[in-house]
Structures are given as C-alpha cells and as structure tokens.
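hi! just following up on the protien thing from before. the input was this:
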Amino acid sequence: MPILRSTFISLSRNRSLRRFCENSAIGVRLSSRFIAGMEIADAIRVAESVNRQGMMVTLDSLGESVTSELEAHKAAEVYHQLLDLLAERKLKANISVKLTQMGLELSPALAEKIAGSLAQHAHSLGNFVRIDMEDSRLTQVTLDIVRRLQAHPESRGAIGVVIQSYLYRSQSDVEQLLADGIRIRLCKGAYKEPAEVAFPHKADVDTNYVALSRMLLESPIYNDAR
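and the predicted 3d structure came back as:
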C-alpha cells in the first residue's frame, strides 16, 4: 500500500489537492473509502457504525504543517470537540494527532503545550491521545514531548506514540518507551527516508516489524501492532 500512504501524506500537505478531494465529485468518491467525512458529525456517525461492528476507532483530522499559531489552535479545537462528543456518545474511540498540526515546526514549545492540553482533556474523560509519528527529522523531538507529557500527573497514561519499523533506531526507542510505560502503536512507516536512517529494503522493514511486534506482545503494557 505504499502508493496510498504517499497519496494521503501528499493530500495532507498540498492544499490545492486537498480542496480538490474535498469539493469535487470525483475527489469525494475517491477519498470516501478512507476518509470518514468533512465534518465532525460525519466522523462520529462512522465511529458509531464501526463500534456497532465490534471494533474500536481512532480518529484523525487530516492535516500537517500549519503555518500559524492560530491554525494550530483551530486544529486542536477539532480534537477537543471530538473528545467531548466521544465521551457524550460513550463511543469506544480515541484520537490520533500529528505534532506538526499542533505547530511543531513553528515552535516545539507551542506543540507541546497544545498536545498537553489535549492529553489532559483526554485524561479527564478516561480517553487517550496517540501522537502520530512523522518523518525521521522529527522523531527525537516527538518522543521527547511524549515522554514529558507521560511524566505529567494530569496526562499520565493518556498519551501514546507511533513507532515506525523502517527506522534503524526503532528497537532502542521501543525499549525506552516500554520502560517509561508509554503505549505504542507500531507501523512500518510511510515517509521517504535516506538509507542512513532507514532500512532501504522492504524485507528488512518487515523483519524488524515482526521483531518489534514480539517485543510489544511480550510487554504487559497495552500496545497496537497495526
């Protein structure tokens, strides 16, 4: 599925392409298989439907790399509304957030403050925020923010992170995160990375994915390998 992953990463970054997919008949038809809808009500309706089928849900508001603090706060407000609605409807669902959408490339402190507010909100509702992982240049700052939020009493246990098996560093990251009691979702990775930081061959990525999955399955912490 590399082509689909690349397409949706491009979609989240390219505003013209995103407008096409949101507003044209063909764009909506192509994206409807993968995107719950354009409004919060659409996402809630789909989450209810998936729950009725016996499955849990993670909701993600598409978007990366905001260009202003105002945009970052507006993006966060969508997630705050989602958290409240999930609690109100008693849905088995949580949220997944990209730190660049919370302003990481404008200011790491801004992104940490906004993500921390979301994690505290989720904690107060008995819910959970997963921080999605982006390209490798942001891996360390993302993990640093997640660890600090996990250490905060008002968000402890309500924060998790994604780890990508195509990075050489991922085994040591998983070991440290498990030691810190942080929940992990494991994926293979969707970004084009240089050979100095990532396995260049799919077979090696797959092998590392299996090895990391075993580490997670052996841990007492709840994890997702998907």
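Residues 69-89 form the longest helix (21 residues).
The chain has a mean pLDDT of 89.
cheers
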